Amino acid sequence: MFAACADPASLEGLTWLACYLTTGKHMAIYWSVGTVLLLLAITAPVALAFGFGGAVMARSHIPPVAWIGRGYIAVVRGVPDIAFFLFFVIALDQAFEYVRHRIKCPDWTDPVRQGNDFLVCPAAKLPLSTAPEWVHETYGFLVAVLTFSIVFGAFAANVLYGAMRAVPHAQIETAEAYGMTRRQTFRRILVPQMWVYALPGLSNLWMVLVKATPLLFLLGVEDIVYWARELGGTKTPQFTDYPHGDWRMWYFLALLVFYLGVTKVSEIGLERLMRRLSHGQATTGGELLRKEVTQ
Amino acid sequence: MTCAATIADYALRSIGIGERLLPRSDFTLCEQVTLIGSGMIWNIYFGTVALLTGFALATAVALGKASRNPLLRKPAEWFVFVFRGSPLFIQFFFAYFLFLSLKSAYPAWGAFTSAWLGAALVLFLNTAAYSAEIFYGALRSIPKGDTEAADAYGFAGWAKFRRITWPTMLRLAWPAYTNEAIFLFHATTLVFFSGFPAAQQRGDALYYASYFADKTFNPFVPYPILAGYFILATLCIIAVFGAVNRRLNRHLPAERRARRPRMMPQLAR
Q1: d(CA A182, nearest CA chain B) in Å
Q2: Which of A18, A273, A286, B125 is found 20 to 30 A from A295 (Cα to Cα)?
């Protein structure tokens, strides 16, 4: 990186550290921070959409739809999330391959599950075995995103379901008295008002989601936990210009501090969002804001 | 091999009693149910130990956080922030490598690098922080009238805390604390995926479930079994905590009692 780093053996103190922290492999760990943030950026809206769908289904007046919605919420809540992560990564992968297998190779006669193997025709492999490395990595990442969204969608569905029930009933009755249809009431009255009730739960969920991101490591994505273990391990002079002992403890301390920082920033951001959403709402928070302005 | 023989061989496999070798191929449903159930021993051990010890520390930290003295308040606030603000998964990793380096300096720390002590310690501190936040919130919402009435009756100091403040705090915190207990049991599955080694493949329920899923490449059998065990455990927790809740609220008129704790009004982890 820097010109001074040409001969690592002669470096001392801070210069050594600066050079050490900018080696190619360290660049990989900084990029993996980007992976984590990308996961958060994609998962949060997708999980919210899943949650909205789940909540609407659970409220449905058609019993089978309501059962699916409630079942989705109940099952994911009752089981450790990490078990779901490990389950969905394999299950989704096999489901995709099985569907492709049925479409692409209709004349394949062998059973897909043979003993301890899951065999689909080569054309149905996902990604194809001829695909370049980055396709494999992107595919793994997308399966991870989908897994996170399904699990956190159930939590979000629970929060939104509660928020929809928290909107004062008088508001709905008034809308009906004005002659709005159920659909109109839902779109114009219920949804705009539910967010302020949902926000405490959703902020909590955001914190939970942030703290679940290290689990990407278990899904086979090369994330910060993977690199912290790689880079922190004992390095001998034979294999690297920067030999050191077992520093994994310090790498994980750095990760701990990183996550504490993300938590602190999120807390401040969510506090501001809550103030904004409370504005003009018929809640205690909204009432406090009104008094602040009028005084 | 019959199912009874499998149970005799593997029911206590996770604590080192019975057959040493895990089945390698042709896994039967009975083997999967038995071994995953055997792993639940560890989950119950970690959950129970952390919950019981964490409860005491949580009360102390909640009182510290509510204290006017900054020497007590600041450390309590930091403790709660550090353990609630960072992922448990990273805490496990950090603790494990910390204990490893302590072990290389002082061999007396060796026991901490094994899961039964090291991971239990992390879970203890973690649940103490989460519970302390719940108790702190409850402490602040104790009705003013209750403490004023206690003052009027001449309660003070320890007697007031023991008779008035503490029971009311527990009563108010109990539904949220039930959730924390459920989440703690779910969190115990992380232990053997985070550095702490499963010596001689004596792991917890998820360890065995993922072992079977890896070997058979079929996730649709072991994970539903695991899910069944955990739903059962969750129902047990709700039953036990519900009984405590009824006892805490027994002096209140029936309609004012806190209703059965809702399973998840707030998410803890």
Answers
A1: 27
A2: A273
In chain B, which residues have their Cβ closer than 8 Å to the Cβ of A81?
A: 186
Task: Report the pLDDT value the prediction gives residue B268, as an integer from 0 to 100.
Answer: 46
- Chain centroid offset of residue A89 CA: 14
- For chain A, what are the domain ranges? 3-294
Residue B234 lies in a domain: yes
pTM given for the model: 0.86
Examine the pLDDT at B209 and tell me if it is beyond 70: yes
Task: Write down the ipTM of this complex.
Answer: 0.85
Backbone angles phi, psi at A114, to 5 degrees: -115, 105
Give yes or no for residue A135 having a pLDDT over 80: yes
The domain at A3-294 falls in which architecture? Orthogonal Bundle (1.10)
The answer to whether residue B7 is domain-embedded is: no
Interface test with A, best of B94, B103, B126, B133 (most A CBs within 10 A): B94
Q: How many domains does chain B have?
A: 1
Residue B17 lies in a domain: no
| Residue range B199-220: mean pLDDT, rounded | 88
Is residue B262 in some structural domain?
no
Q: Which of B87, B227, B264 sits opposite A158 (nearest CB)?
A: B264
Q: How many CA atoms lie within 13 A of B26 on its CB side?
A: 1
State whether B223 and A86 contact (CB < 8 Å). Answer: yes
Say how many Å lie between the first and final Cα of chain A, rounded: 58
Q: What are the beta bridge partners of residue A117?
A: A114
Give A188-221 pLDDT, tens digit per residue: 989 988 888 888 888 888 988 999 888 888 887 8
CATH of the domain at B92: 1.10.3720.10
B48 has a pLDDT exceeding 90: yes
